[in-house]
Structure formats: structure tokens, C-alpha cells
Amino acid sequence: MTNEDAKVIPVRVALRCRPLVPKEINEGCQCCLTFVPGEPQVIVGTEKAFTYDYVFDPTAEQEEVFNTAVSSLLNGLFKGYHATVLAYGQTGSGKTFSMGGTYTSAQENDPSVGVIPRVIQRIFKERESRTDCEFSLAVSYLEIYNEDILDLLCASKDKPSLSIREDPKEGIKIVGLTEKQVFSAYEMVGCLELGNSARTVGSTAMNAASSRSHAIFTITLEQRRGTDKVDSVVSKLHLVDLAGSERQKKTKAEGDRLKEGISINRGLLSLGNVISALGDESKKNAFVPYRDSKLTRLLQDSLGGNSHTLMIACISPADSNMEETINTLRYC
Q: Please, are residues 154 and 178 in contact by the beta-carbon 8 Å criterion?
């Protein structure tokens, strides 16, 4: 381990601002953000400045986000580090777009595809170039809806809620979760499409097909090296599309939607607490509250320890969303 490796920041934050959407333009919204040229900094209104590891303004293309922020995590994955990419932000700020959570294989060479399809392409490219080791790849895809864990690759319509067990050797296990071995990018994309179509979406005032659950697409990479391929290194990549973080009065939620909102916010709150406990140098050996929600429990192996995490914070530039935007900026 060189000095440089030791100094890796376990959690990095990329801020991504989408362009104004037609609905906002029609309502006469103005852009309330200023991006500081050459600096990863954004200014809200006239006074508040926020700085992150990376800042992508509304002109940034998907490819730039991937190459700048995600690519280095994949290099770590091949070295045996776990990695997690999370998309956070209010409903309609571009999380699912950034992650590629509505991707279908028809969009294969479209420049607008998000993180997950790009990751899949890259992993299989890398596999071809490494002849010295055997790769095996498996994927699983789940959602956390109202604190229940549902298997998105499960064929039956009524998905049973799954439970989490902790295995002293293998870490966190989800009992009964489908883990599908895949041999080609095409097959892996098939799993992504299948799961995307099974996600729980519901209409709120802010977004007609709002993701009402946290979705976690996990790729497990096992590399076997050596003469008889016995040295095995297993690393996991979690790609997480979190549900929206907005206030109830903004989505006008009631009944089921409101109940969903409450458990969504509980997961996000505990995620924030876990990440700040991990990122705070002064609390080196402090207690990290992984058990506060299913979300943090599932990601326990991949937040902290020998893993790298990227949070993509998605925001809307519209002044009508300024309060939510500031909440996202503060959270991150």
C-alpha cells in the first residue's frame, strides 16, 4: 500500500445540476445557481457557496460525469476494492436519468445513457483485455420499498419481503435474493431492464413516474489468478438510485405516497448519518449507525472499510426548487 493509496478519500461527492425543464420554463422559473468557472463550487442566490469534489453544470454530458467521477472507482474494483455509487436528490432532479435506471438495450449507443450501462460496457471491455485471470460476474437487483426488501429479478408478481443476515465470513447476506451469473454485457443489461420494469413508481405532484423506492443494482466480480486459478479476489459494485428526498408539502403526498415518503426519508437520514460518521476524521473510531435502516444495513460492507463511495447529488437549478436544492447541498 503506497502513501498515495492510503490517502484515498473513501467518500467523494459529485454535484450534478440538470437544465431547466419545460415545465419550469413555462412557469417562469429562473436559474438560481452560479457555477464558479474552473472550481468545483456552486453559489446559490447571491451569498451561499458550496464546494464539492466535482461539480457538473447543466451542460455536462453523461460521458463527462462517467469519465471524471465514476471511472476511477472501476479501476479500484479490479484491484479488489468494493465501490458504491449513489444518486441522491429531490424528486425530478435527474437521479434515475444519471444512473440509467430506465435504460433499455435500444439506447445502446445513445450519448444520453447513464452510469449503469456505461459501467457494464467498461467491465466487459476490461475483461477482454485481462487475459491473465478468470473473471466471473453475477448481478442482483433489489428495491427497498417502505423498509421491505424486494427482489426485482424475481419472476413472481407478488414479491415476498426478504430478510438480511450477517455472515461472519461473507458479510451481509440477503436470504433468497436472486443472484444471476452473467457472461456477456447483453445478459447483464437484460437483468437491468428486467429490474427497471419491476420498480415501484408512483405519481406525485413533482414527477409523473416518481421512483418510490431505493433501488440497488449490484455487480459481483470474482477474479481468479495464479497458475491453477486459486487466488480469488471478490469485489462488489453497488449502483444505487435513491428515492427522492423532498418534503411532503412539495409532492402533495397523502395516504400511500405519504407513508412511502416517510420511509424514504428515514433511509436517507440514516445514510447521511453513516456517511458523516465515516467521513469525519475526528470521530475515527466512533460508532457508525448502520442498523438504523435497511438501506445502510445493505450497504454496510461497501461504505467504509476498503471501499470507495461516490455520491452524485442531483439538483434542479430552478428558483422554485431553491429550498430543496439548498437541503441537498447541505446534506452533501
A: yes
